[in-house]
Amino acid sequence: MHKFSNFIFNNYEEYFSITRPLSLFQRKRLFDTLSPSEKEFLENDFDKNRWEELLVINEINRKSDLIKKKYNRDLFFIRLKVLSGKKVRVKKVFWNYVISMFADFPSEYLKSVLGGIISRADRDDPSFLILKLDKEQYNE
């Protein structure tokens, strides 16, 4: 239990689990009605317990599942195959969709789906070649 007994939520986890079914707008509206001290408490708990990282990773996994459902291609499997030394060829429309789905995510969170790989394309080829990123390229 927290030190402020008049708070509605005991921690960010409780806030998130209760407000999860709400729309983003509803969740924000509810948050805005909380006292300044409770908002600060929840924001500190959010940071301390690394909720941002968890929520971003969950969203990446959700988008990966959507891609798999739409194109029947598993990004995690593609990455593992490429990292084991095999080359994978994918259609440009698929790879452009993948890149657009993850364009707004910070790169440090994308390692599980795109880390260690690179794509190459010829102008006249309707596909991308997915290759393992050389160690020298990691530092560029």
How would you concisely characterize the structure shown here?
The chain has 140 residues and is mostly helical. It has 8 helices and 3 strands, in the order αααααβααββα.
What would your notes on this structure say?
By secondary structure, this protein is mostly helical. It has two domains: 12-49; 73-138, no CATH class. The chain contains eight helices and three strands; from the N terminus they run H-H-H-H-H-E-H-H-E-E-H. The chain has helices spanning 12-19, 24-33, 36-48, 51-71, 75-83, 92-101, 111-114, 135-138, and strands at 88-91, 117-120, 127-132. A three-stranded antiparallel β-sheet has the order 1-3-2. Helix 4 (51-71) packs antiparallel against helix 6 (92-101). The chain is elongated and about 65 Å long. The chain starts with 11 loop residues before the first helix and ends with a helix. The model has no long low-confidence stretch (mean pLDDT 90).
- Report the helical percentage: 55-70%
Quickly count the domains.
Answer: 2
What is the H/E string?
A: HHHHHEHHEEH
Detail the poorly predicted runs: none
